[in-house]
Amino acid sequence: MTELKTISSPEAPKAVGPYVQAVAHAGILYCSGSLPLNPATGTIEAADIAAEVRQSLANLAAVCAEAGTNLGRTLRTTIYTTRLSSFADINAAYAEFFDVRSPARTTIEVAALPLGATVEIDAIVALS
């Protein structure tokens, strides 16, 4: 059996519950949901939903870097949002992180997210 390896980046916000930022197993990185928290302050400082998407993805990018991979190797993401009416803004900010090849993705509207966020994104990423 391939060993499980916990991944934790000091460049990403600490988990706000009893979970880890990511787990690597059998060549795949399973990233927990990333809230749009500023890693230095642990608070949401984004001015709008597009900025929240950018911060969430920047946090995921830091976790990927800690594991020796990058968002360009993302296989699948899930976006949770409390404002599906902002789908176009979400897509525009999301596209800034995936230029040539976008991963498979699901977007789900939810009633609420932790800490009052309007966006949370998780990812499954191939390790390098």
Automatic annotation (TrEMBL):
Keywords: Hydrolase. One of its GO terms (molecular function) is hydrolase activity. It comes from the Bacteria. PANTHER family: 2-IMINOBUTANOATE/2-IMINOPROPANOATE DEAMINASE RIDA, PROTEIN HMF1-RELATED. NCBIfam families: Rid family detoxifying hydrolase. Belongs to the RutC family. This is Rid family detoxifying hydrolase.
